[in-house]
TrEMBL record:
Keywords: Hydrolase, Protease. InterPro entries: ClpS_core, Ribosomal_bL12_C/ClpS-like. The keyword Protease applies. This is Clp protease ClpS. Gene3D superfamilies: 3.30.1390.10. One of its GO terms (molecular function) is peptidase activity. It comes from Lutibacter profundi. It comes from the Bacteria. Residues 18-83 form the Adaptor protein ClpS core domain. GO terms for biological process: protein catabolic process; proteolysis.
Length: 91
């Protein structure tokens, strides 16, 4: 008869907690759909379909989250959206 020995190991898992922020784009009566779509493609790296969907959501819902990530990545993107005349903020 053999004896089996069970070994239980304790493993610590290091989790990196990252605070994610969002760029929220707001509706306005100034910018065209094409301008919003082109801006989202250029600045937020959206596909054409993503940019179109966001533009529609902004138009009908009043706002839409267009990019999620770390603050240091979002800050220059939000600044570029604002410089193109769009209404956006980081939350």
């Amino acid at each position: 008869m053999s004896t089996k020995k069970r070994i239980q190991e304790e493993v610590d898992v290091l989790e990196q907690e990252t605070n994610l922020n969002e760029i929220v784009l707001f509706n306005d009566d100034v910018n065209t759909f094409d301008h919003v779509i082109d801006s989202l493609i250029d600045i937020c790296d959206h596909t054409l379909e993503q940019a179109e969907q966001c533009a529609i959501l902004v138009h009908y819902k009043g706002k839409c989250t267009v990019k999620t990530g770390e603050y240091n990545d979002l800050k220059p993107r939000c600044t570029m959206l604002l410089s193109k005349g769009l209404s956006a903020e980081i939350i």
